[in-house]
Amino acid sequence: MNTEILKKINAEWLLEKTLPSLVRRDAPAIALEQSADIIAVAGPRRAGKTWYLYQLIHDLLTSGKARREDILFVDFEDYRLTDFKATDTDALLAAFQQVAGKPPSFLFFDEVQQLPDWSRVLRTLHNQNRYRIAVSGSNSHLLEREISSELRGRCRSILILPFSFPEILRYGGIPYDYPTLLTPARGQVMLAFDRYLQGGGFPEVLKRETALEKRELLQTYYRTIYYRDILERYNIKAKYVLEAVMSYSLNTFSDLFSISTFGKHLKQHQLPGSKQTISNYRRYLQEAFFIIANDKYSYSARQRIMNPKKIYLLDTGFSSLAADFSENRGKLLENVVAVELFRRRAESFYYKGKGECDFIVMGTVKPETAIQVCWEMTPKNEGREIRGLRDAMKAFAIREGLILTYAEEGERIVADVGKIPVMPVWKWLLG
How far apart are CA 143 and CA 157, in angstroms? Predict the structure, then answer.
């Protein structure tokens, strides 16, 4: 690797980079100078992972815990680092010392998955006990369940998704304290929720003025996930199958994804695709933070694997890219709940027996909460929605049930399980 390029990249960071104005994220406050763990920030592209790293840097600088020349920041998606190898890490650190006049104390590696053999590099640097390290990546392998085998207990992972609803309200300067929600100003909160439901929470998308501009930017994100996060990373051969799986996910979100059914769908269009290929590509979409896939709940792990998964989009804004987009408000509402449960790192499933329940949320060792989501409770659907919730609660001895709607608030008395709260999704999102 050309050392002059490494010195130039370090000089740009030390002398020219200005930290942007930040919307603070609802993520743990980290005292990085005291952390013995590698901080791994994972999430989809353009969700704000880099900004969260900047937030950590800002806190170090403003608290006096570090100066700029103590901090090395590298974006591994910089085109000048295309040929960077794991063995070039020492040259990178030496180049920083040449420019700053001292070795760094803090290492920030953005989009670290682009660094070949990244886990070995991080282990080596961490073992030297010289640095406090924070990294980001657009791949779920940086989450705790995936990363434990890579970094063997050296890591604390943080999930950064597109803005949550409270973050959107803060971004827009909209108050949502309890007294405000009792006044007509509550209408501002409801309007913001309507926009969140339709447009999602990607920060740059929120800045766009028109629906067309928002859709064009989301299309760019979609193609980047397709090409860079999946096609290139996994060396995909059957591109048409990947395109079909992504398109199918756009059109059937908040619904079951059956590999067998999808295989038949391909055959109808005279496209080959094995069940294993379809399964792999669906998993790649999860790893790239494009979809969330919930299993059907069962005490048997084998049964969980055998049954279809329920698919949700990681951001509801992507729904506007569907080929046959028609506004299904109930599905959008359910998708928002799925994203929030994922954000809260809740382990969730769906239930399907005689009735259906949208979410079974695990506690420490067993199912703890059953959640049913519908746009509104009507004489036509109330019996079905309550029956599915009750069946799930009885099947797994779940004590806590909840019905989430767009606007209704109250409770229902349900035979055999007692009182079930009914709450608007927006209020549940605000906690």
Answer: 5
For residue range 169-205, list pLDDT tens digits in order.
999 999 999 898 889 989 999 999 999 999 999 999 9
Banded model confidence at residue 144, pLDDT cuts 50, 70, 90: low
Q: Based on the domain organization, do 410 and 319 belong to the same domain?
A: no
Judgement on whether residues 281 and 385 belong to the same structural domain of the protein: no
pLDDT: which is higher, 328 or 145: 328
Token pair in block for residue 192:
């913001």
Distance between terminal CA atoms of the chain? 50
Q: Percent helix, strand and coil across the chain, each rounded to 5?
A: 50, 20, 35
Q: Tell me the angle at which helices 144-151 and 118-127 cross, rounded to the nearest 10 degrees.
A: 60
Report phi then psi at 116, rounded to 5.
-55, 135
pLDDT digits (tens, 9 = 90+) for 102-125: 999 999 999 998 898 888 999 999
- Only one residue has tokens 């059957």, namely 238
CB 54 within 8 A of CB 20: yes
CA dihedral 203, 204, 210, 213 (to 10 degrees): -140
User: Is residue 423 predicted with pLDDT exceeding 80?
Assistant: yes
Q: How confident is the model at residue 100 (pLDDT cuts 50, 70, 90)?
A: very high
Question: The domain containing residue 286 runs over which residues?
Answer: 208-326
One domain for residues 244 and 308: yes
Split into its structural domains, the chain has a count of: 3
Q: What is the mean pLDDT of residues 152-161?
A: 85
Model pLDDT, residue 27: 85
Q: What is the DSSP track for 234-274?
A: TT-S-HHHHHHHHHHHHHSTTEEE-HHHHHHHHHHTT----
3-state secondary structure of 428: helix
What's the CATH number where 429 sits? 3.40.1350
Give the rounded distance of the alpha carbon of 249 from its chain centre. Answer: 16
Helix axis angle, 259-268 to 275-287, nearest 10°: 110
Cα distances (Å, whole numbers) of residue 219 to 160, 213, 215, 250, 319: 21, 10, 6, 12, 11
Paired tokens of 416? 């055999």
Q: Which two tokens stand for residue 306?
A: 């055998």
Residues 30 and 139 placed together within one structural domain of the fold: yes
- Tracing tokens 């996994």 back to the chain, one arrives at 234
Sheet of 38-42, strands arranged across: 71-75, 106-110, 132-137, 38-42, 155-159
Which neighbouring-strand residues pair with 349?
Answer: 360
